[in-house]
Design a protein that fits this description.
Layout (H helix, E strand, L loop, with lengths): L1 E7 L5 H10 L3 E4 L5 H9 L8 E5 L9 H10 L5 E6 L2 H11 L11 H11 L1 H6 L2 E4 L5 H12 L9 E8 L10 E4 L10 H4 L6 H8 L2 H23 L4 E8 L5 H16 L3 E6 L9
Parallel strand pairs: 1-3, 1-4, 2-3, 4-5, 6-8, 6-9, 7-8
Helix pairs in contact: 1-7, 10-11
Length: about 290
């Protein structure tokens, strides 16, 4: 029997995730009162029960006062469960609340920011107990669905780390959320070649030009080797989001090419959730 507790920050995608789990065969119950968790788990464990895959949603609306005791009771009875925690950056949560014009459940008449602070404090225990943590800050709905299916449908090995490979242009500033920043302006610039000037690193001829230099291949090999060393250590230390930023002058040629290349290498590794984003590729200027 698979018993999953879905929780996390309001606005991080908990309800959406429950719908995704329902689509892959889970019996889902949202906003279940804490005192009923143990009873519900026991019911699902009865012989010949038709409920073999269950997901329950809990959050600050249910009141979390007794959650530690409820989980301790499950452990004491040998009832196995997993906790999926949905998280997102504070500024992303604020934006989502404003876009939907919803009030935060903890501060119906107050500031969303204050509610987020209170909620993080209340959820500290659950986040620490989480089996899986998914940061939805930069995930599209289809990307979130892919991660949920990888864990609960395809049974893939999951590491609580989601990697974003981000190309950018230095002329537009270094990304504020970057954890690691690499400058690839040491490579020859396709901007100065007339037939490549108005193209981007997503075009084959630009890619072929940038990767034709030995320095580019050496850089990619060394970067891949370093990342494969760093990533498991980040996971061990509890990091669950990593933004790797690769920059050139305008964010259209060299950075895009090398970001795509390192993305392909890490994706083929198959152990981590990973996405690619080109922040400045559509901006004016072609350097």
């Amino acid at each position: 029997m698979n018993f999953v507790i879905v929780t996390g920050m309001s606005g991080a995608g908990k309800s959406t995730t429950l719908k995704m789990l329902e689509d892959i065969g889970y019996f889902c119950v949202d906003n279940l009162p804490i005192p009923l968790i143990e009873k519900f788990a026991e019911l699902s464990m009865t012989p010949n029960s038709e409920l073999t895959k269950i997901a329950i949603g809990i959050d600050v609306r249910t009141g979390l006062k007794d959650i530690s005791q409820a989980l301790a009771n499950l452990d004491g009875h040998g009832l196995k469960y997993e906790i999926l925690f949905l998280d997102a950056d504070d500024d992303v949560l604020v934006k989502r609340f404003k876009e939907t014009r919803r009030a935060h459940p903890l501060v119906a008449d107050g500031r969303v920011e204050d509610g987020i602070v209170k909620e993080r404090q209340l959820l500290t225990f659950l986040k620490g107990k989480a089996t899986y943590i998914i940061d939805s800050s930069h995930l599209l709905t289809r990307e979130l669905k892919e991660k949920v299916e990888d864990i609960f449908l395809k049974n893939k090995k999951f590491a609580n780390l989601y990697i974003t490979i981000l190309s950018f242009g230095y002329k537009y500033g270094i990304p504020n959320d970057a954890d690691l920043v690499f400058d690839v302006r040491f490579l020859p610039n396709p901007y100065y070649i007339d037939e490549l000037k108005n193209k981007t690193g997503n075009d084959k001829d630009v890619r072929d030009y940038v990767l034709s230099f030995e320095e580019a291949d050496t850089f990619l090999n060394k970067l891949e080797d370093m990342l494969l060393f760093l990533i498991p250590n980040y996971i061990t230390e509890g990091k669950y989001q990593l933004v790797i930023a690769i920059g050139c002058t305008g964010g259209k040629h060299r950075s895009v090419t090398l970001a795509n290349s390192i993305y392909e290498r890490l994706k083929s590794n198959g152990q981590y959730g990973i996405r690619i984003e080109h922040r400045d590729i559509e901006k004016d200027g072609h350097r």
